[in-house]
C-alpha cells in the first residue's frame, strides 16, 4: 500500500522566509526615504499623517507626499492585476518580487546619476514598487504579515500570547517580522548615511533574494524549507 505523507497544517516555509526578507527590505527603504526624501515610500498611513502635519505647520513638503500616494496607488493597481494570473502562488509572488527589485535597482541608479528632479523620480519609483510589493505580500495570505506589518504583528503577538490566554501560535514568526523591520531600519539609516544609492541597491538585492527563494527549484536550502511548515 502506498504511503501518503502527512498533511502539513502550517504555513509555507518559503513564503514565510520570503516575507520576512521583504519586511527587512521595507524597513530599510522607509528609513532611507524618510531621511533623504522626507516622505515614506511604502508606509502610506505615515505619509498621510506627514502630509497633514506639513499642511498644519505650513511646511512645503506636501507635493512629495501626494506623489508617493499616487504612485503607490498605481503600483497597487498593477499588482492587483498581476496576482490574478492563473499560476502557482509562489510563482506569482516570486516574479512580482523580482520585478519590484528591478524597479528599486533602477531608483538606486537614478539617485546615483542625479538627473534633474532625481529625488522626485526616485520617490515615485520606490512608491510604485511598494504598491506592487504590497499586492504580492497580501497574496501570500500569511496572518499578520501584510506589509507594513508592525502594528498588526505586535497586536497579534500580544493577543495570541499565553499571558492573554492564547496558545502562542505564530509567536516566533511575528517576532521575526518585527525584528526584521527594526533591523532593516537600522541598516537603512547607517548605510544611507554613507551612500543613499548603495542603501537602495541593497534593498533591491534583499527583495531579489526573497523572490529567488520562491522561484528556485532544487537548491538544498529551499528543499529543506519545503519539508517543514511554519505555525
What's the CATH architecture?
Up-down Bundle
SSE string: EHHHHHHHHHE
Residues in helices, as a percent range? over 70%
Binned strand content:
under 5%
Radius of gyration: 19 Å
Structural summary, described in words:
The protein has 231 residues and is mainly α. The chain has a two-stranded antiparallel sheet with strand order 1-2. The protein contains nine helices and two strands, in the order βαααααααααβ. α4 (89-113) runs antiparallel to α5 (118-139). It has a single domain (11-216), classed as Up-down Bundle (Growth Hormone, Chain: A). This is DUF1275 domain-containing protein. InterPro entries: DUF1275. Pfam families: DUF1275.
Topology readout:
Elements: E1 11-12, H1 13-37, H2 44-56, H3 63-82, H4 89-113, H5 118-139, H6 150-159, H7 171-194, H8 196-215, H9 220-226, E2 229-230
Protein name: DUF1275 domain-containing protein
Transmembrane segments: 15-36, 48-79, 91-111, 117-136, 175-194, 200-221
Pfam family, one: DUF1275
Amino acid at each position: 500500500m502506498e504511503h501518503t505523507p502527512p498533511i502539513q497544517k502550517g504555513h509555507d516555509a518559503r513564503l514565510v522566509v520570503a516575507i520576512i526578507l521583504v519586511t527587512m527590505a521595507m524597513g530599510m527603504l522607509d528609513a532611507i526615504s524618510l531621511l533623504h526624501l522626507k516622505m515614506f515610500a511604502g508606509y502610506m498611513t505615515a505619509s498621510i499623517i506627514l502630509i497633514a502635519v506639513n499642511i498644519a505647520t505650513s511646511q512645503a513638503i506636501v507635493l512629495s507626499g501626494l506623489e508617493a500616494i499616487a504612485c503607490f496607488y498605481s503600483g497597487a493597481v498593477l499588482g492587483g492585476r498581476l496576482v490574478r494570473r492563473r499560476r502557482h502562488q509562489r510563482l506569482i509572488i516570486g516574479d512580482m518580487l523580482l520585478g519590484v527589485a528591478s524597479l528599486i535597482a533602477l531608483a538606486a541608479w537614478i539617485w546615483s546619476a542625479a538627473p534633474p528632479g532625481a529625488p522626485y523620480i526616485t520617490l515615485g519609483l520606490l512608491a510604485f514598487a511598494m504598491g506592487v510589493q504590497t499586492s504580492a505580500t497580501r497574496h501570500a495570505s500569511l496572518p499578520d504579515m501584510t506589509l507594513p506589518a508592525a502594528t498588526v504583528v505586535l497586536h497579534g503577538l500580544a493577543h495570541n500570547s499565553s499571558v492573554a490566554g492564547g496558545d502562542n501560535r505564530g509567536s516566533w514568526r511575528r517576532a521575526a517580522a518585527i525584528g526584521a523591520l527594526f533591523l532593516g531600519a537600522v541598516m537603512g539609516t547607517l548605510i544611507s548615511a554613507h551612500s543613499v544609492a548603495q542603501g537602495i541597491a541593497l534593498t533591491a538585492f534583499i527583495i531579489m533574494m526573497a523572490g529567488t527563494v520562491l522561484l528556485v527549484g532544487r537548491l538544498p536550502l529551499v528543499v529543506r524549507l519545503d519539508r517543514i511548515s511554519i505555525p
